[in-house]
Amino acid sequence: MTAIALTLKKPIFRIEKAPQPILILSWIIVLTVIGWALFPSLFTDYSPYAGDPAASFASPSLEHWFGTDRLGRDLFARTVYGSRTTLTATLLAVLIAFGLGAVVGLAAGFSGGIVDTAIMRVVDVFLAIPSLLLAMVVVSVLGYSTNNIALAVGISAIAAFARVMRAQVLTVVNQDYVKAAYGLGVGRLGVMLRHVVPNSLSSVIALAALEIGTGVLAVASLGFLGYGAPPPQPEWGLLVAEGRDYVAVHPWASILPGLALAIVVIATHRISTSFRKEHRR
Amino acid sequence: MIRYVALKVGRAVFVVWAAFTVTFVLLFVLPANPVDLLFDPTELNSIPPEVRAQVAENYGFNKPVLLQYADRLGHALIGDFGNSVQSGRPVIAAILDVLPSTLILASAALVLATLIAFAIALVATATRRPWLRNLVEALPSGAVSVPVFLSGILILQVFSFQLGWFPSFGDNGVQSLILPLITLAVPVAGPIAQLLVRSFATEFGAGYVTTSWAKGATRGRIIVHDVFRNAGLPALTIAGVTFGNLIAGSVITETVFARRGLGRMTQTAINTLDVPLVAGIVVLVAVTFALINLTVDLIYPVLDPRLRASLTAGVS
């Protein structure tokens, strides 16, 4: 009997107990990369475009941290400068998805009835097409460029945001303070702007934080497939794609920029889960 | 019950029809001059106007949009998506050609991903060592964070170029399937494992587990007999997401490993702006997605008596 009592008293499951140092490290990584994007020249002395053809395919060394590529360009410099392209596109994509998704979700949840049903059926359709495929189709129609990638990734994520926003609006609309506001004679628009929107946004913001990691992956994946910036420009997905042709002999040329990308995504995921937990409390 | 089935079937049909419409608008209406999309951009200026007019006539671009739409929808209903611009073959035949190769890869990856996900959830639930649990629980979010093209290249580098165990590309039997299979299974396993870890944890704290403890069951018996049977089911609810991951993953995986398949064909079709082929692929994907969700909606009540009871009671 005592054995059972002991087992039950113990917290059987601690879902999240990752040590804080990892969270701090994640913040350092993300802030560093934001620094790369804002002031690339502070972090590297090399140019991302000019290379020394004599020093092509150098191995990683103190001089060239990530080595050099086929044209002797410093790959660390290209990764640093590439962060600007990739991060700007991601930010734009998340803003589009967040803005339009929140508006669509608010319209659906706040109107209710037939409007709600109609909007959500359309959202279902966008969820039925895998987002990478949808983004590929959109980018093929718009033309290849980093901005269009951002637009495509943003559009393909609207449905997910709309869904979360609507669910949140539906719970808020039934709260007592909303009914009280109506009772006090506040108009529908006033209730929506003053009470529903501010109280519904938090979970959508948590999703936006999570979407940044996913967005970087989507932008880089489209760049890898060749739908983004034209070659001389540095972009993370494109860097991996360029190095891929020589992966058998010079593996670091694609693996190191790729690892940098993966580490950034892992760090943003770690940060966004910490947001979500605080939000839940 | 019949109402429930009719509702779900109606929704599936609507999703497919709407996906067709969205694709039509995106690919045939929005582009300023859809005829241009049918030619190689570099040759665009050298094409005489008569040829353009001829092509527009062939593809029906000179007809009113609504008429084009009705025409395409009518043909799509009998499985006719027109001819691929690049190869000139019927779209359906071109898709069916490469489909088996992707189906084998995707289904094998799905099996492997499910096994990995269950293994992660089982270890996380069964272990009493916090560090091991933390490590295992961190794996799924790691799996979804690493881009598929990077893991593909890493796996290729280690097992093909360094160790030489497997061929680096191609489509020759089981040997060439292993590396793409692992590459594709990792990102697919991530979300499934996240869901399973959570539902295992919930079920492990459920009342019937306390009862089993009280009756003197061991930890292992509880996990296998009580938790495992109840916690596996929710994985079905993300079948649609899993399917999306398999499609997106196979586009990248097939590109990295230069494998023939639907994913690589999608990429080529988009690169060459093969509009009819792209439209056919998108609709096919939407049909599959709708069928998967319909199947899950229909078999879930069969598998879960609680849901069945609420359905027969008319509360759905």
UniProtKB/TrEMBL annotation, chain A:
| Pfam families xref list | BPD_transp_1 (PF00528)
Please provide the record's keywords in A-Z order.
Cell membrane, Membrane, Transmembrane, Transmembrane helix, Transport
TM helices/strands, residue ranges: 21-39, 87-110, 122-143, 149-165, 204-229, 249-271
Localization, per the record, is: Cell membrane
Where the record annotates domain ABC transmembrane type-1, the positions are 83-272
Its domain of life reads: Bacteria
Provide one Gene Ontology biological process annotation. transmembrane transport
**GO CC annotation terms, alphabetical:** plasma membrane
How does the record classify its membrane topology?
Multi-pass membrane protein
Q: Which PANTHER family match?
A: D,D-DIPEPTIDE TRANSPORT SYSTEM PERMEASE PROTEIN DDPC-RELATED, OLIGOPEPTIDE TRANSPORT SYSTEM PERMEASE PROTEIN APPC
Q: Per the similarity annotation, which family is this? A: Belongs to the binding-protein-dependent transport system permease family.
Please identify the protein, giving its name as recorded: Peptide/nickel transport system permease protein
Taxonomic lineage of this organism? Bacteria, Bacillati, Actinomycetota, Actinomycetes, Micromonosporales
TrEMBL record, chain B:
Domain of life of the organism encoding this protein: Bacteria
Please list the residue ranges annotated as the ABC transmembrane type-1 domain.
Answer: 99-300
Annotated GO biological processes are: transmembrane transport
Topology of the protein relative to the lipid bilayer: Multi-pass membrane protein
Cite the Gene3D superfamilies for this sequence. Answer: MetI-like (1.10.3720.10)
The primary location reported for this protein is membrane
Cellular location of this protein? Cell membrane
Per the record, a Pfam family?
Answer: BPD_transp_1
Keywords (alphabetical) are: Cell membrane, Membrane, Transmembrane, Transmembrane helix, Transport
Q: Where are the transmembrane segments?
A: 12-32, 103-126, 138-165, 231-257, 277-300
Q: Per the record's keyword annotation, is Lipid metabolism included, yes or no?
A: no
Which is one Gene Ontology cellular component term of this protein?
Answer: plasma membrane
Q: Which family does it belong to?
A: Belongs to the binding-protein-dependent transport system permease family.
* PANTHER family hit by this protein: DIPEPTIDE TRANSPORT SYSTEM PERMEASE PROTEIN DPPB-RELATED (PTHR43163)
Q: Name the chain's protein.
A: Peptide/nickel transport system permease protein
